[in-house]
Design goal:
Helix content is 0%, strand content 46%. The protein is globular, with a radius of gyration of 15 Å.
Length: 155
């Protein structure tokens, strides 16, 4: 497990009308960082796409795949981290509803391993500032991909 990364299993409440699952509460241990609210957003990742690889120097991400199935790829390259160099591939989505906390300076990407669109929500601890974005990009290592075919798009 990469130092600072946390995974919270999500409890699904189902009935004849559908289902509900809470993703993140302010009182959750995984959110207990004392930081003010940043922003929540929804993003899509199309089939045969690997979205990312990027990291943030200040921001913590709290990511959940809410529709479809994919892999959350993590790579710890923090100089002071006891897990520097470690990689993780977390299966997430409808088959494994989890919230993944991604600390600053941990590289991350989403790989759609299914045939439909993956939708994910992400709570981040800072608002996006287009004039000074806290986002740094790198190349995804294709040796880490899990899909059986070559990706149609990476980035």
């Amino acid at each position: 497990m990469i130092d600072g990364v946390e995974i919270k299993e999500l409890k699904v409440h189902r009935d004849k009308r559908g289902f509900l699952f809470e993703i993140l509460r302010g009182s959750d241990r995984i959110k207990a960082d004392g930081k003010k609210f940043g922003q929540f957003y929804l993003s899509a990742c199309y089939p045969a796409v690997i979205k990312g690889k990027h990291m943030h120097k200040k921001q913590t991400d709290h990511l959940t795949i809410v529709s479809g199935n994919g892999i959350v790829h993590l790579h710890d390259m923090r100089d002071a981290s006891p897990t520097k160099g470690e990689k993780m591939a977390i299966e997430a989505g409808e088959k494994n509803l989890v919230l993944v906390k991604i600390p600053p300076e941990v590289w991350h990407s989403i790989e759609n391993t299914g045939t439909g669109t993956v939708l994910f929500v992400n709570y981040v601890t800072t608002e996006f500032d287009p004039k000074n974005p806290d986002e740094y990009r790198s190349e995804f290592d294709l040796k880490d991909k899990k899909m059986p075919t070559e990706p149609g798009s990476i980035g």
